[in-house]
Queue: 2 jobs
Job 1
Amino acid sequence: MTTTHPGSARTSLREWATGVTVFAAIMLMIGGILDVMRGIAEIADDGIFVSTRNYVFEFNLTAWGWIHLALGVLAFVVSFGLFMASTWARVLGVGIAALVVISNFFSLPYYPVWSIIMIAISGFIVWALCVMRKDDAFVPFESPRDT
């Protein structure tokens, strides 16, 4: 005869939610580092990027570099808040990842493969941060409940 424990389903849900949050934090940190490197490359040397003419969202590549650098630094900082399962970090993480998607979409003609990779990474981050509910989050210093 088997006995079911009502807390075991809740524990596995918490472990899954914690794993998804850690995944989002690591991906946001990696995406931020990669965006910082791309921003530095765009600011330092315009020669490595494709120059397109008659593009609707045409900016100077140095301007794109500063945009990517700022978003990368913000993403890196917010990723540390995600490791602590902060609500503010989840909200900012979704916003920053959405801005990274938009900025990479606009800079798609300059560096197409890299922009598509960053759009995919940021899409996974948005999904991971939106799929978890606050009640499912693991609180590091909570006391165990007696059931």
Job 2
Amino acid sequence: MGGLLYSILIGAVAGWLAGKLMKGGGFGLLINIILGIIGGLLGGWLFRTLGIHLLGGILGDLLRGVIGASVILFIAGLLKKK
């Protein structure tokens, strides 16, 4: 249960940060947080699959989450424009 809560919190912060980094601010706070949680999962999977190791601990998790959330926000932004 603690791991799930940790993942949700890191994903939420990552989504918020990714929304701040992306042009246009993303989709609003709530959607950015949800996309951050999904992006955190994507980032973790992608980095493991590619064999890329970033920082350890909270900073590494947050960095992977921000990168994953940014990718998700970028793709969602492309779909939103259509």
